[in-house]
Amino acid sequence: VQQRSADGNRDGGLVRFLVPWAAAALVDSYLALGAWPRPAWWQFAGEILFLLALGRVQYRLARGWLRSSLLAAAVLCVFALAVHAPKAPHQLAPFLLGLAGGALSVVWAIERRWHPPILVGTVVALGVVIGARWLDGMVISRPQGSVAPSLVDAIAWPFRMVVAPASTSDGPPLVIISVDTLRRDAAARMASYARLAARGAAYPHAMSTSSWTLPALASLQTGRMPAEHGAGCLEDGHCQGLAPQVRALAEDLSAHGYLTSAVVSNPWIGRGTGFDRGFATLFNSGDVVNRLVVGGPPWGVHRQDDARTVDAALAWLTRAPRRGFYLWVHLFGPHMPYLHAADPIFRTLDPTTLRSTLPLSDARRREVRAAYDAEVAYTDVQVMRLLDGLERHGVLDEGVVVFTADHGEEFWEHGGVEHGHSHHGEVVDVPLILLAPGLEPGERSGVVSLVDVAPTLRVAAGLPAEGIDLRDAIPADRVAGAWGGLIQHLDCSARDAGRRVILRDCRRSPHAISSYDLARDPAEREPVRTPPADSLVEAAAGVAPPLRGAPASLPVEQLRALGYVQ
Ligand SMILES: [Zn+2]
Questions:
Q1: pTM listed for this prediction
Q2: Is 4 exposed, middle or buried (0-12, 13-18, 19+ CB in 10 A)?
Q3: Separation of alpha carbons 519 and 462, rounded Å
Q4: Distance separating alpha carbons of residues 71 and 211, to the nearest angstrom
């Protein structure tokens, strides 16, 4: 009789298991209401059901059901460790199952031994939610290492709604769409590129200011060369963000009454490198997902899927004013790994693996390029969705829209692969299109640079600006420069309308100088003899590195997943 009574008590304890998880679900739903973009109703419902199901499983465990779960969880955890840093969902699933199984088994063991009161269970469940926020505190778009402010920020969202910045400007809407790692030739095959080119000015001689993301996007957002904006990595691997004294475009626009928003997807771009300056909101789709169930994989590059980034941009746009806003959308699709390649091997390919692989056959190299092209095609679909949203909002008619890339990608044209390792055209030349009211469609001659975008937008918004306005005729003798690379090869280069000069490891002495006649040899196969006193060589030698500044705060795990950190 006594045994039955004890079982009866346990049977009556289902509520004890459901209440803590229901509390966790409600608290997390409250926090998510302040998140942006806000999850859909079915995501809230899904999370609550999932957490209640977790409570139900714990209840079953506590009654002695699934006694072997501890062993099963241990096996799964060992398996998860064996596959190491999980990148793809099929690797992630056993890892998560192992963790969930382990957690449930611990609860089961505690419950059988001590029968803890409901309050303890609730505290543990809320700890899960708070723990997810703690993970948020460690990613780049929030101040890293300072968990408390990010928690307060999450909890105090109704206050944020009250003091949310509003646009006080009637200036034209300004939009920059930048695509990571988008080669000029690949962009020219995109339907979205053609759609923009049909109603805007295209610049076939546009150059980045670097061969990789951080210095290039800093130039895009400041209108300054790397020596002035300071962002990049120096020879010894010291990486730094925007220099404190440099004014970003978003800072000027927001001081001028613009509502500003950045929706980005590259771990180099965030608060840790100063890219949040001037943006009222900065959404990085690479952030750890703070919802327990929804919103995609909690880590790995799959979070940077362009569909999610465009979803976030469109969600912001539905609440944006008609005029007086600045939106920057940075897509990540064409960057390795190729998440949408037909061959699954490319879906986890990172640059380090590719570079360290033995020489690939021509056929294998063509497969890598095809995987890149498949990714560009996917990004094209997402850019189209974004353009549809901008069209509905009237931005394509009334606004100033820029479409470009931070840099291209090389596929063994000059022996190397990826970006950040050379300054040839396939890496440093970028696509560039500008839509602006009254601007005639068509191709523009003259060499332009990513540094020209910010002054163009500043002038369009009615602000004073130094530099070139892309809506004006470009001087025929324009020379554009670029600096930097991914640590081992800090090259300098310069190009004008007819030639390109590359100084390999330009701060080392001696360094190799190669010069190309772009009219005769656009693929840069045969260097031409150029005396060191040539004006373009001097221009390339004059491209200076940034001065050493404070180190950037970087999301090392995310960068490692992309092959940037060993
Ligand atoms: Zn990049």
A1: 0.83
A2: exposed
A3: 38
A4: 50
